[in-house]
Amino acid sequence: MKKQFLKVTQDGHFFDKHKRVLLAISGGKDSMNLLQLLYHYRKDLGIELGLAHVNYKLRPSSDQEEAYLQNWAHQHGLAFYCRSFQGVFTEERGRDFRYQFFKDIMETEDYSALVTAHHADDQAETIFMKLVRGSRLIHLAGMQPVQDFPPGQLIRPLLHFRKSDLEDCFHFDDQSNQSPAFFRNRVRNNYLPQLEKENPAISQALIEVGQESYIFKQALIDLTKGMDVTNLATFLGQSRAVQHVLLQLYLQEFPDLHLSKSQFKELHHIIVEKANVHTYLKNGYWFKKDYKTMSIQKIGPETDSAPQDIVIKSDGIFHWGPYLVTKNHPLPDAWSLALPSEKPILFRTWQPGDRILLNGIQKKVSRYFIDNKIPFSERRRAAVIEQDGKILGISNIATSDLSKSAKNGIIKATLYIKMKE
């Protein structure tokens, strides 16, 4: 399988754009096989490999597995990152926690690709699960070998292989994979084996359904390219069937919206039948329709639409996103920041490459968030306060050495920041 793996990855140009690659490793047979393959061919693929592991603390051997993987990485000169899950575990919570951790590491450690060990059997299971849950045809495309995964890409080089193709190697058996409490386990251990009695090639058939769905979806995207879905004249000028397809494609721009079929039907009814509308959908999203256009927006403190930068040049009261900001006008219970000079202040959203001087060390803002376990809701609304090109602080979170020096010396001005009521 080794040579075939190299051929698939090189022919698919999976790693052509990537140098630093992060492998999600559980310690199971799939990820340990992928680790061996990537490590063996790292020079052929031109990659530097790092390992990321999540310890779910679900069984007594969890800490032993973490220690083994960390030791393996150390012996082979690879970076190793680990985070422990806390709270009540569910499949959905575990997945969200896992992928947020991977994103954090990619961002702070400059990895441009995340690699997972999903194989063809996983693909068949995923498509079957979507069918059982009643997913729309457009959502049956399944997993792709390479897809966007901000801040980089997600690569699944084993999707071309079955689990039976994987070689025997040292790995840890996860007993929770046998538990019928999890839907995927029931699919893997019960439902698909039963269906194989009717059709021994059921897994391949499911994979082909996913491939056809993907082709169908891409064809729709190509055919509707250049069509402005939010223009009501354009949208309403289509047949009902085309309207449904256009609306589905538009909703894919908001992956965390998750409208049910009944909610989708109601939204389509609003678009077609009602005039001016401003209504709440779910998960922080609002739908707005006037006479000419329609749009979906996420509104509130955690909005994906960042507030515009503001420049503060004089004393006064200012507004930025969820914050009330004043210069030299004290606010009760406000967070304050000493300013070392009277130069203009830039109030803006934080960016992945931002660095702040803390205890004599320039530290990435994103790394500070992770090290101090700043909740994601606070990260999303965090503002950087910058003067003369240097970061003085992060709203309600951190104060740089530059501001502390001003506080201990001569304070030229003070900024007060408070969450709006």
Automatic annotation (TrEMBL):
Cited Pfam families: ATP_bind_3 (PF01171)
CDD domains xref list: TilS_N
Location (main, coarse): cytoplasm
Keyword Cell division: no
Name of the protein this chain belongs to: tRNA(Ile)-lysidine synthase
Domain Lysidine-tRNA(Ile) synthetase C-terminal: 345-413
Gene Ontology BP, a term: tRNA modification
Domain comment, as recorded: The N-terminal region contains the highly conserved SGGXDS motif, predicted to be a P-loop motif involved in ATP binding.
GO MF terms, alphabetically ordered: ATP binding; tRNA(Ile)-lysidine synthase activity
Catalytic activity: cytidine(34) in tRNA(Ile2) + L-lysine + ATP = lysidine(34) in tRNA(Ile2) + AMP + diphosphate + H(+)
Database matches in NCBIfam families: lysidine_TilS_C, lysidine_TilS_N
Keywords: ATP-binding, Cytoplasm, Ligase, Nucleotide-binding, tRNA processing
Enzyme class: ligase
Compartmental location: Cytoplasm
Organism of provenance: Streptococcus suivaginalis
Top-level taxon in the UniProt lineage: Bacteria
Coiled coil: none
Gene Ontology cellular component terms for the protein in this record: cytoplasm
Enzyme Commission number: 6.3.4.19
Positions annotated to bind ATP: S26, G27, G28, K29, D30, S31
Function: Ligates lysine onto the cytidine present at position 34 of the AUA codon-specific tRNA(Ile) that contains the anticodon CAU, in an ATP-dependent manner. Cytidine is converted to lysidine, thus changing the amino acid specificity of the tRNA from methionine to isoleucine.
InterPro entries in the cross-refs: Lysidine-tRNA-synth_C, Rossmann-like_a/b/a_fold, TilS/TtcA_N, tRNA_Ile_lys_synt, tRNA_Ile_lys_synt_N
Family: Belongs to the tRNA(Ile)-lysidine synthase family.
